[in-house]
Amino acid sequence: MSALSLTLTGAQVLGPGGLKQGDLCLSAGKIVGQAVGRRVDLSGCTVLPGIVDIHGDGFERHLAPRRGAMRDLNVGLTSVEAELAGNGITTAVLAQFWSWEGGLRGPDFAQKFLTALEGYRSGGTDMRAQLRFETHMLEDYAAFEAAVAAFGVEYVVFNDHLPHAALAKGKRPPRLTGQALKSGRNPEVYLAQIQKMHARSADVPEAVAALAARLSARGVRLGSHDDATAEGRLTWRARGVALSEFPETQEAAAAARAGGDSVIMGAPNVMRGGSHSGNVSAADLVQAGLCDALASDYYYPAPRMAALQLADRIGVAQAWRLVSEGPARLLGLDDRGVLAPGKRADLIVLDGAGRLGATLAGGCATYLSGEVAARLLS
């Protein structure tokens, strides 16, 4: 897809100096400092940096709408890209599990996903992989590390979703039968598998620390998931894991910030007015200065909606930074997240009613709608 050469005029543009009316010039996929190409009047509209979604698993329903239904993952990825663009996301980190849960969250599917993403020809949206590794899969460490190296995965998050409380009491975890059947496995075999992993919990800390050290030496960004305590965050920091995804408490988030680590929260938490599971409010962390980025988590409309919701409290510049410049910085992507000369031409256009009218990724139109589309196409 060819990048557009345009000079956008008349709109309110969120640049480094705040939200101001002015021109924004695009050429060869970059923002430039002088007028170029066709002039497009966007009076009454607002132009914002494209959204950088640092963690989202909403793509799963496109790749596996039903078990065995999606044979060609490229078809699913095309659908994913369309949804991302329709929600103003220009860079997306697709958070793929490497989990004992199996099915589309198992190692076999992860390999297929990575292969498909590596060969996918994007329409403009920058889609990248994050691997979410279940730490108790001790027998998978070598295969997981090999996949990270083979596919050039740049971001790994450590998870532990084993139902330890039930397993420690010798109880059958809730929903086990449904989970097993959904992934095509015998429930009793499934139970034996997770019991075995739980029984080896004492071996996990040393193995995780060694794996984290090797990945870090390779330049892989490392995150922890659902930090619950300050002590837990300190443990991850000692392993070189500097990103705290979705901490469950303000204590854990404050510990991250105090140690120079970064905090990522879920944008749906902001939209809902709190966590669906009773954890700390993302909006409260934002107002306390304890949040560096908001992620779609499981719902791609959430970053845009959450940032606009927060704008009433903390101002549009600070709120929008949480879904653009903030996550771009955490990912080491200093070429985007800000509307300034030399940066990628990643942007969205909101019409006068606040509806998304256009998404441009690298200067390519990935989404157009309504009056904004008419102006850009005329």
- Euclidean distance between termini CA atoms: 19 Å
Backbone structural class: alpha/beta
Q: Can you tell me the CATH superfamily of the domain at 1-50 and 336-378?
A: Urease, subunit C, domain 1
Q: Under the CATH scheme, which class of the domain at 1-50 and 336-378?
A: Mainly Beta
What's the arrangement of strands in the largest beta sheet?
8-9-10-11-12-13-14-15
Q: Indicate the overall shape.
A: globular
Over all CA atoms, what is the radius of gyration? 21 Å
| Quantity of strands, as a count | 18
The assigned CATH architecture of the domain at 1-50 and 336-378 is Roll
Assembly type of the shown chains?
single chain
Biggest sheet descriptor:
8 strands, parallel
Number of helical regions: 16
Strand content: 15-25%
GO molecular function, one term: hydrolase activity, acting on carbon-nitrogen (but not peptide) bonds
Pfam families: Amidohydro_1 (PF01979)
Protein name: Alpha-D-ribose 1-methylphosphonate 5-triphosphate diphosphatase
Domain Amidohydrolase-related: 221-352
